[in-house]
């Protein structure tokens, strides 16, 4: 098994490289800066290959012989499509760590036929927010049987964001541009259905904003649902106003090990069905960036070792949700589905 990692010298990319090395999986590190790639590969024995996203020929060559590609190089709306094209051309499965809702829909619209024809799986949004929220939503929908409305709320606290994450955030798309699934399609909408949300393990309600969360783009593809929207817990006034590139450039590349350990994230899902039936799902974890690396590496391992149907797939279409969540439980992620 050989996995190509593009964006391998970035903050999340280096965590993915470390996870591949920890699990003894062969990797090829791909990027434009040889010195940074050599630093990322230090002590692993991994091969490095130079390629740039605006040079399709170099990308195609970089992925040659790879069984799968992990893409950690955002912003994905600007940089993702050439990488997917190169992975498909190399007949390699593809996984990325995007959280960009609009981009996820574009991947389904653009690459479904090409991926199916090539016999490969393309699975976007395999990160701490996209993968677990898709899996728990599927399990909630499975328990509910019939779902009129599905709401996913995500709450990050006690941590910090990497420069790459901040650069990938488009405040207009993340907040006002958030999509809601309704009447068989996705569209922007007005006010959120909730102004506050009761998350597990806390007594008080938490203020929430409507937000362009990844599961809203993926879950309706495998859970029959009338309406679905996403909420983000906490205050994000700084992000809504936008952060100047110079300010982002002056920040640390990402949280240090202690900050990562302290960072907590919670996914809370509520499904409403006929007769007022309520089914809830909860996922809680720490170190979102570290868990993203674990999720992305396990995803490509399963695609290569176990196989998957070809095409662009939501996480729950590519993998058995309960099995994947049980795997994450071994890494300190807690989850449950309850009725009432």
From TrEMBL:
Alphabetized Gene3D superfamilies for the sequence: NAD(P)-binding Rossmann-like Domain
Residues annotated as domain Saccharopine dehydrogenase NADP binding: 3-123
Domain of life the protein comes from: Bacteria
InterPro entries: NAD(P)-bd_dom_sf (IPR036291), Sacchrp_dh_NADP-bd (IPR005097)
Protein name (database record): Saccharopine dehydrogenase NADP-binding domain-containing protein
Organism per entry: Cryptosporangium minutisporangium
